[in-house]
Amino acid sequence: MIEILPRLFVLSLLGVLASAFLPLIRSRLAEWAAQMVFIMSTLVGALAGFLFLLVGGTPFLGIISFPAVFSTILSIDSLSAAFFTLVCLVSALCGIFGLRYLEDYREKYHLPTLLAGTALFVLGMQGVLLAQTSISFFFFWELMSLSSAFLVMAECSRASIKAALFYLTMTQISGAAILGGLLLIGDGSLSIDFINLSAAADLPVPMLGLAFGLFFFGFGSKAGLVPFHAWLPEAHPQAPSHISALMSGVMLKVALYGFLRFGFVIGPFLPSWVAYVVVGFGLLSALYGVLYALLERDIKRVLAMSSVENMGLLFTMAGVFFLGMYGGNQALAIGSLLALVIHVWAHGLFKAGLFLSAGTIITRTHSHSLEAMGGLAKRMPVFAAFFLVLCLSAAALPPFGTFWGEWMFLSSIWQAILDGMPGSIVLLLIAIIMVCVGGLAIFAMVRLFGISMLGAPRSKEAEAATPAGGIYRFTMAVPALLLVLMGLFAPLIVRMVFGLETVQFVQSGNYFFPPLAGADTNASSPLIVGLALLAAILFCYALRRLWSDVRRERAYHQWDCGQPITPGMEYTATAFSGPIRFFFRSLLRIRKEIVATPMVSTNPWMARRTYSLQVRSIWVEYGYAPMEKLVFWISKQARRLQTGSVQFYMFLLFLALIVSLILAL
Amino acid sequence: MPIQLLLFLFPVLGAVLAAIPGVPSKALRQVSAIVGVATFLIVGWLSYTGGFFQEGEVASFFAGKVLRLDALACFLLLLVSVLYASVMLVSVRYMGEEQVEGIVDARKNRLYYGMGHLFVLSMLLAAVANHVGVLWFALEATTLSTTLLVAFYRKEGGVEAAWKYVLLCSTGIALGLIGVLMVGFAATQAGLSPQEAFNLAALRASAGSLSPDLMRWAFVFLFIGIGTKVGFVPMHTWLPDAHSKTPSPISAFLSGTLLNCAFVTILRFKDLVDFSLNQTWWTERFFLVFGLLSVALPAFIFLGLRNYKRLLAYSSVEHMGLMAICVGLGPIGVVPMLMHMAGHTLAKSGLFFGAGEWLLRYKTTKIDLLPRLMRTDTRTAGLFLALMLALLAVPLSPLFASEYFLVAIGINLNKPITFIFMLLLVLAFVGMMRATFAMLFDPTMLGTESHEPSREAAHPEGWRITHGVMAVHVVLLVALGYWFFTAEGFQVLSRVAKLITSTV
Amino acid sequence: MISPVAIQFIALGLCLLASLMCIVTLRLRSILRLYAFASLMLAVYAAVLAWQGGEIHFWAVAALTVLVKVAFVPWILSRSVRKSHALERLQTSVRPTTSLLLALVMVLGLAAAVSHWPFVQHAVSNQAILLSVEVFFVGMLLLIFRRDVLSQIIGFLTIENGISAFAFATITGVPALLEAGIFGALMFGALLMATLSHHVQTLYGTEDTKALSELTD
Lengths: 665, 504, 217
Prior knowledge:
heterotrimer, A: 665 residues, mainly alpha, 6% strand, B: 504 residues, two-stranded antiparallel ribbon, 2 strands, 75% helix
């Protein structure tokens, strides 16, 4: 069993690589073959990763190594396998979605490049997860970043190019930071093998702190942590929907993986306050992300900001893990780590599913704006049911996987507080903010579902929407189903996947990774919770059936004040978020404008009113924009050196000579 | 008659042919292309048999050891001759089209090829020169032979650029001459015979006994003087003018190899100075300071550029700066420097070929006057993008290898400088990408209000020889990027590097 | 009887003086004459060295200097100027008195700094080195101060003179190959610059480099 696994991984990688080059042959058949090969090989990858987790007992498996000066070695361990399986699974889903979606948008996108780019992007993610040396890690990281940037601008519109450029900028800066970190902990060697990473312990603490800071910034900005997140709501909505699904669903996770991979190594040698820093940024992102998820009206921006929120939650979990380790509270650490892995999976699935559904919706309504949707539930009921499941998952409600992850996290925090862990006031604060974020997330998801699906259609396109086809439904059904299963059988999955007795995440003894044996996964059985919930729903239904006088109910048209009801009377997405805007107005940057133009000059009361709301970000306004301005200002000054006067150029030459002579001699 | 002199045979033939009045323009173009390819084959054969893959110094040849063919010379020769072949092939199309359109007449055509062959001749000479005087003369000859090419179109901009080019570079080379004389002075003081005092190999053999004081002075003059020719900031001012006004194939040559020849010349002298000072740090500081300046200024300037040929020219300044930083990091940095040099030569020249294609079709170098090239010129645009990415050091490009090593070495030696340097690289990346995206996808993106409508080409884009050459460059880049990571490639480069770094 | 060393000194001193006067003069014909005179003094210097050391090599150099720098280069320049009908008056961006003052300050400064130069311990003749370096830098100043094309050529040539003087003063036997290269490069350079200045004149109708400042991106 274990012998053929490396071959499966190699097969998957080669298949994805092949699908990147197949579209070079200019024919429909080649395109179709590329898509098929892509789907098959990602499925093989998912299978291989899953088998690796299932077999257990082997904490570490070498896959392939290229003989070169700085060898490129690929290998897999439990940590990377957990992420790898998710990446492959979601990629396969997106590939399947693409079969239909790209057919619908054949004129809009250049298909061969898009397919090749997608394949390279997935290959990059796979490679990052499997890389075992710093040079191969960085190689695949750059591959992932660059190909995704080109995918963002697949549409070639001005807005998408700008978004891609912004994304490229951020990704280059974060790439530089990561490279710096890798080389710092490499301590002089050009390319280190991650097996030998524990040698980093010999480095002085400031150096390790610097490396940790670089990693945190590098991976954090890639993962969309506030305040390095500004590229995310720009880039994710611009990409084709299945690419957005890949970016939001799994690329952000790959960044998290990187942070964990190196955080586990450096963490033990750092002062404990770094845990608070991680938690702080995590909570900030969660809160900020969920607020903007509530405010945005572009459906894909809502989802992108929800990703910021979820990445914030994940980083909070990682931070609490560190907190537990520094405080010597193993139960807390294990609890939050398990919660983290569950949440990674849950978010990967529901966010990919939601982006794919957003794509489907956009194919119907031809608009990104929530204000142009509505009434879709009546027109595409099966779709709406799956969409509801995904939205509820995103809102972390039971009985879905997401709920279980967050519940586990909160209960282990609660347990730590009860145990009287020092600094429990911080833990309490974390729990409170988490709950608050959870509440706002429910609000956001209700808004998302309600405005887009319920009510009457707000545009002609929405009115004419037709039910989504089989592939569209299928790609939503799979994550929805998996989320339900995850919710119901979570403890079983955890036990199965992590083989509690034997598996350590990472191989070397020097890591501070606890044996997972102590984890009590039976504390709350979600299956029972789920069944109880189901029972409650049935009970309510039965109550109504039995006690209410159903037979005398009759259908009657809505009370309309004597006027015809139009979609213009509906609750809008903007209005829905009004209360939240009011409460958090000091945190948000909003400009509201109501322009009244009188229709009759004599009567000021009869006027046409246009209401516009601009949602901006304080980070962009006070951070990014001035920085950009500064750089352009310097650029302008630098160009003044080229005066065009040859005498001045001579003077520069002369000056360089004299100054060098004086300084150097 | 040493076999190595075969090297010069074909360029001389080409130059002679171009000098004959009344030679048919088309024949001249085709023969020149053959000359370029033949020279490349000869260089390839010479390098293969004559030392590129062998250890140690290779025998000097010709008249009292005036020339020699060591691994470093082979490396430079290969770069020059690859480009010679490409440029001459592309010129067939470029000059042919210009003559059809009446921009260039038969006399101009002869001038182009005559000067072009002489230019290559002087670069080949500079690469193999062992005599300091020959080396100096060859460098001066590169300036003189290209001046008329810069002023080729006799338009205001061209003549202005040529004037600045010849004045600044000649002055720079004159400074270099003082440096050369100071080295000679130091050598005669140390008791070398006048013959030996100007022979690089002999100087290297007895460099330990040269007076450190004199060598320091000599180095400052050499560095500033020849550095002018390399295009280090702040002596770079002529470069964007000259490189953007030349006919595009020649721009490829200027950016791709001429700067390398000057750079290697500085390195050869640096090695002597290091020997005499018995340390490398003193000279490395120069490379570091001027390298950082040369990276920083273009990195900022990219953001404001509207002219794609100037963009490429400034990028050459930046890459020379990167190579200087490599050298500034110590002897170990020379290997990534060589990788960078090879990668830069291939990528930049390919980009200039693409730029030339657009200049021919749209008659403008302003980005905002171009149409959306990805739509109208898909082939050129695709290859241009690939080469641009290679230039910006994405994985698989040799520049990825070199910049990775550069950062890896730098971070151990000097962290603050390395971090500043990385930020500058990001800035340069963004600036270049921004301009590239504007050209390929949306020319109005740069935010200028252009009053003219974008140009349109007379014909749809066909398959040209230029595309073939650019594609070959892409393939070569990928192959080199891989080869440099293998043990063999790395060893070959280390052997080359040893020729200028075995000092300390 | 004046000693040969004194003649050397006087020759180089006159060379420097002529170069300094180049900075002051604004007449086209006189700057060409001054350059020819400075070159002639250089030839005299080489001749004295040859007579003193008894080397044939230096005789050849002196003869070449006279041929190339005193005769050929001024001739080619004046021909080009005549052909393109350039103005007799030259252009400068710094007033002659100010530029002379600055040049004098630089000359004195260099003289004061001379004791720090490593050549002092090694060289045959300190004054010769000092004077040659001063000629070199005067050429530089000429390039920086003067706006018209012709003065800039003269500036470059003056730099070249300084280098030649430096070579004579330091190395007794500059190889013939290098020497030939220098003269060749000088000749071709002067030819090229004359051609270019002709182009400038025909294209812009002026020799003033103020017109040559279009490329400012």
